[in-house]
Amino acid sequence: DPGTLGHEDIVQRGAKLFDRLIVGIGINTDKHKHGLIMSHVRNEDNDAIEASIQELLRQGQYCNVQVSHLKVVYGKGEERAEEILHLLEEARKNSKFTVTADIYPYTASYTGIGIVFPQWAKPPNDYELVKRERREELLEFLRQKITARNGPEATLFGTRPYAGKTLAQVAAEQGRPFEETLLDIGPGGASGAYFVMDEALQGRLLEDPHVMICSDGSPTMHHPRGYGSFAKIIEQYVQEEQRFSLAEAVRKMTSLPAQALGLQNRGALQAGYHADLLVFDPKKIKARATFSEPHLLAEGMDWVVVNGKVAFQAGKLKERQGKVLRK
To answer: How far is Cα 112 from Cα 251, in angstroms, rounded to an integer?
Structure first.
């Protein structure tokens, strides 16, 4: 499994090979009708997103597809969102399988700093050799890339020693251009949040009934989406902006994901289903997590019931009641 090695280039080359091979292989679609491909797309940039989604959808000839996580880097406005949603809707019309997507309600992504480096500067290539032999070319690439991504102020480091500072701040402290700061950090030297998405565009994607809510978070990530995504949906998109009803928000966070994943007896208040419940007053919900303090629990989630037993109450964790879910 090349994914266990952590070499991005190997994984990408494997994906390209699979993309070429799968269209020529005879697959029993009835056998795979309950399968699911849930994948990031190859390139989320505005000028590449359609081609990247189409690549993923080609696999949807044989099983269900979920786009994770739906966003457009550099894109602007609701009209651009409509173009992406139209692409997904056409795929649903022309396939006997489902086509869904997930999204988190923030306009900043989070990943390794390698996202701004060219492929030829990343493993398996020798970065120190690249720095020596292609230094000026790499500096120019980084300068243009960061400028296109809303400038050095839009890159917020989430790992030490620069956690909580923007690329612009770090470069200013060092008294040199931001591209030289990046050159020294290298493609594997940091992770961060990147403020590269448009609120109007992402908000329209979020409203689509086939798009569910995700957090894409982890306990150590310096991004509020891990602790704040679901509360933010209720607080902002339901209570403040009224983009959709509370019932629709709950569906996007419960039954829709359960259906997409093929989980039985989960995701709904229904006889015979497992009692996985959240008890709250929607008017009291508040996402407290921020980019400076990303690990703050949301307010207003009073009771959490997992498999019919109380797991969280009045701000305190009770016994762990969860279990591994399998289709």
So the answer is: 32
| SS3 (DSSP) at 169 | helix
DSSP string, 174-212: HTS-HHHHHHHH-TTS-EEEEE---HHHHHHHHHSTTEE
Which amino acid makes up residue 176?
A: R
Q: Using CA atoms, how far apart are residues 35 and 183, in angstroms rounded to an integer?
A: 42
The two counts, helices (H) then strands (E), for the chain are 11, 11
Rounded to whole angstroms, the Cα distance separating 251 from 278 reads 13
Nearest CA to 190 out of 268, 242, 125, 112 is that of 112
Q: Is the pLDDT of residue 21 over 90?
A: no
Expressed in percent and rounded to 5, the helix, strand and coil fractions of the chain are: 40, 15, 45
- The string of pLDDT tens digits covering residues 128-166 is 999 999 999 999 999 999 999 999 999 999 999 999 999
Alpha carbon distance 115, 158 (integer Å): 14
- Cα dihedral sign, 93-65-43-211: positive
Least Cα distance to 156 among 105, 58, 223 occurs for 223
Residue type at 243?
A: R
pLDDT above 90 covers what percent of the chain? 80
